[in-house]
Amino acid sequence: MSLHCCYCGGWWPENGSYNRQSFLRHDVPSIAPSKNFIFSIPLPSSRVSQGFKLHCFPYSTTPAPKNQDGASFLSILKILESKQAQDFPDETIDSLVSVLSPKMQTILLKKQKDWRKSLYLFRRMKSAKDYSPNPIHYNIILRSLGKAQRWDELRLCWIEMAKDGVLPTNNTYATLIDVYGKAGLVKEALLWLRHMKSRGLFPDEVTINTAVQVLKDSGQYDLGERLFKGWCDGKVELDCLDLSYDGATDSSVFSSKHFLLTELFKSGGRAPVSQIASGLARDPLKPRRAATYNTLIDLYGKAGRLKDASNAFLQMLQSGVMPDILTFNTMINICCSHGHLLEAESLLGKMEERRVHPDTKTFNIFMTYHASNGDAENVLKCYRKMKESGLHPDVVSFRIILQILCERKMISEVEGVIEEIIELVSIVDEQSLPVVMKMYIDEGFLDKAFIFFEKHFYSGDVSSKNCAAIIDLYAEKGFWKEAEEIFLAKRKLGSKKDIVEYNVMIKAYGKGKLYEKALDLFEIMRRTGPWPDDCTYNSLIQMLSGGDLPDKASEFLSQMRKSGFMPRCESFCAVLASYCRSGFLSKGVQIYKEMMACGVEPNELVYGSLVDAFAESGRIDEALEYYNIMEKSGMKANLVVLTSLIKAYGKFGCWKEAQELYGKMKKLKDGPDAIASNCLINLYAGLGMVNEAKLIFDDLIRNCQADEVSYATMMYLYKSMGMLDEATDIAQKVEQSGFLTNCASYNNVMASYAVNGKLKDCGELLHKMLTQKILPDASTFKILFTILKKGGFPSEAIIQLESSYIEGKPYARQAVVTSLFSIVGLHTFAQHLCEVLVNDGVKLESFACNAAIGAYGTAGEVDKALNVYMRMQDDDLRPDLVTYVHLAGCYGKAGMIEGLNRIYGLLKYGKIDPAESLYKALICAYEEAGRDDLAALVDQEMRFSFQNDEQICDD
């Protein structure tokens, strides 16, 4: 929306409604707003004037007169700064106060920040014989006591004021309304308006502005507007305000503050009858102070009534009331708060026209707007423009700039701002400590974080709330030790740890699974304080339940109730779920019954835990019982509960009932998820219901919900039904879909390839798996041994490799993988592993040497194979049957007939136990070497040998 300043309608909106019209646009025609308008405003030369310095630094010291009056003033100030109120000698103070003029006495009272000193000085002033009581001094004391919330002393002061015959003025009432309102006692503050009315005193502009501000700050915007409009009409209507405080009020809500006000109302001077009469009727009034308009504009802004705020600003200009910096800041803040940046920048131009210069707060408002939109660039531009304008950043400025820089992890820039803060104000504001600490912790700079904390924690006064926030930062990351160091850090004298710090530290111990430490801290709280609250108990219950200590958690549940706290539903649910996970279903049910007895309504999580637990244990009747209770209580079953029931039906093969529940899921807003669908596919797979499973699987594919479990279940179904081509198709889709993320997914696809005889694909998949640094597990090696058998690898070699793997011998896994790559024809991968085996400098066992000889031989690297064989002999390793099988292959490829004859001779003369695999290896080798005659001879020898063995067995 847009804003305007030349709206020429009525004085105030009648019903608070407005149309979306331009707002400020026509009042500033000479300015063309742009996104970066704030950065294009020229710096006026007046910025360096004395007036500007006062504007930037509003707290200036009061010059003391150069006479006896001023000397006494300075002496008293020095004494008051050096001692406590009770330590002042009365005679000394009396002698100094008595020579002060009433004006200097007023200044002296105003300068006191401690109510005790103010009250003491006031008593000494009154003790002087020539002192004349006046309302100004009483107003100062009433404000001091009200700010300190010393209500009893304030009552006595009010009574004393009446005894002295000092009539309360408008300033007196404005002071009382202000201090009560700022203390959060809104009703009590507004009761002073009734007090004024009863004494015939009509509120002036300052008083009514103060009352409106109290209503605005308490969020009662409509009442604030009605009160102000009534004042403008010359009357103060109190009927719209709930100001009941007398005996008719319910005694249960009759507070001590109400009683205090009744006592106050019994005292206080009453104005003359003529003054009361004159105060009952007034002519219509119009505000003449900028502060009044500022309050009204802010009220409309906070109420979201931008058009009314615009009208108030326009009326202010038409009434000849000059807007001040607070007016413009309020209007700019309203525009920025509602996202109207262009209108806010137009107001900047209006300020320049009226020679009202932006102050630090002006820039802070723009920085806050840009920061809320995540616009770091413009935040930094505003920050630089502020400094170029000769203004000093304040605490809010630094807080905004640190927040935006820390969110973007701009560490060097953050450290630059921190250096600037140290130069100007010595320490970083405590609200910014958790922000900077979070940046360091998130980036892993724990040392920097702790150094930063130590520097600013011990230099300043950090609240327990912010300490708790810092501890929580460490707790979330699991850094319990660092959190503990913050928790145990020595505090300034008089400052104590709040309950929040203890609760967060318990959370940190829980995150680190240091349950004993958490319980020890709880016992310390019970012994020395602060006393555990409901949050403490809930944290401990959640922690112990999550740590699978349900009995201990249940103890704290009972202890919490005995301490007068009612556990939340989440706490009951945590204990119940912990029992269910541990298999103690009867105890889980007991917690459910306790929960119902306490009047705590179970939620979906409670019923979901019970249904799931009974479903997992196969107790479908109990699962259905709690499902029905859940529905009767008005809660709709969610996906988790329905999925648990489908799993329960799956255990008993009740596919119709599961199908019915799945139909209910489809009627839910988001429909069934992948988990529920996978459960039903698994049920169908177990029953061999291929078509039904395929329908659900196809739905998952269409909705892009299919996951690795969906594919794995379908592969299992197709393999179990002998549909090998379909299983292979699914396996290929898994590989293409990017679902190969863990060992299990690789195993499923590899098994499908192996069943369908795609052995080379298995080898390539295994290499991809190893490349992604996913280690094969026992299931993987089971599949690898199956592939070796299917690939025709010698049975004796398979037995040898399997035995070494089961025994966990060194390099057994590498030997198996090497053999696998070799048998499927991936010789490059096999030789690479051989190089690792041979060149590792470790003495190898026979199985590893055999794997290397076989891989090199199959790849045609006969020299390398024979080198490994020679190494075996050097290491005193006797060649076994597997060695000769692999050597026969090597000799055949190289055409080394003598080598083959030597192996055949050992076999023929009984030096090697006869084995079919060795005979076959020799036959293949002779054929490869071109000696078919010798191959035929060995074949004949093999048949004769095995025929004799059969006859011996028959005999």
UniProtKB/TrEMBL annotation:
<dbReference type="InterPro" id="IPR033443">
    <property type="entry name" value="PROP1-like_PPR_dom"/>
</dbReference>
<dbReference type="Pfam" id="PF17177">
    <property type="entry name" value="PPR_long"/>
</dbReference>
<feature type="repeat" description="PPR">
    <location>
        <begin position="169"/>
        <end position="203"/>
    </location>
</feature>
<comment type="similarity">
    <text>Belongs to the PPR family. P subfamily.</text>
</comment>
<keyword id="KW-0677">Repeat</keyword>
<dbReference type="InterPro" id="IPR002885">
    <property type="entry name" value="PPR_rpt"/>
</dbReference>
<dbReference type="Pfam" id="PF13812">
    <property type="entry name" value="PPR_3"/>
</dbReference>
<feature type="repeat" description="PPR">
    <location>
        <begin position="533"/>
        <end position="567"/>
    </location>
</feature>
<feature type="repeat" description="PPR">
    <location>
        <begin position="568"/>
        <end position="602"/>
    </location>
</feature>
<protein>
    <recommendedName>
        <fullName>PROP1-like PPR domain-containing protein</fullName>
    </recommendedName>
</protein>
<feature type="repeat" description="PPR">
    <location>
        <begin position="707"/>
        <end position="741"/>
    </location>
</feature>
<feature type="repeat" description="PPR">
    <location>
        <begin position="359"/>
        <end position="393"/>
    </location>
</feature>
<feature type="repeat" description="PPR">
    <location>
        <begin position="845"/>
        <end position="879"/>
    </location>
</feature>
<dbReference type="InterPro" id="IPR011990">
    <property type="entry name" value="TPR-like_helical_dom_sf"/>
</dbReference>
<feature type="repeat" description="PPR">
    <location>
        <begin position="134"/>
        <end position="168"/>
    </location>
</feature>
<feature type="repeat" description="PPR">
    <location>
        <begin position="324"/>
        <end position="358"/>
    </location>
</feature>
<feature type="repeat" description="PPR">
    <location>
        <begin position="603"/>
        <end position="637"/>
    </location>
</feature>
<feature type="domain" description="PROP1-like PPR">
    <location>
        <begin position="516"/>
        <end position="632"/>
    </location>
</feature>
<feature type="repeat" description="PPR">
    <location>
        <begin position="742"/>
        <end position="776"/>
    </location>
</feature>
<dbReference type="InterPro" id="IPR050872">
    <property type="entry name" value="PPR_P_subfamily"/>
</dbReference>
<dbReference type="Pfam" id="PF01535">
    <property type="entry name" value="PPR"/>
</dbReference>
<feature type="repeat" description="PPR">
    <location>
        <begin position="289"/>
        <end position="323"/>
    </location>
</feature>
<feature type="repeat" description="PPR">
    <location>
        <begin position="638"/>
        <end position="672"/>
    </location>
</feature>
<feature type="repeat" description="PPR">
    <location>
        <begin position="498"/>
        <end position="532"/>
    </location>
</feature>
<dbReference type="Pfam" id="PF13041">
    <property type="entry name" value="PPR_2"/>
</dbReference>
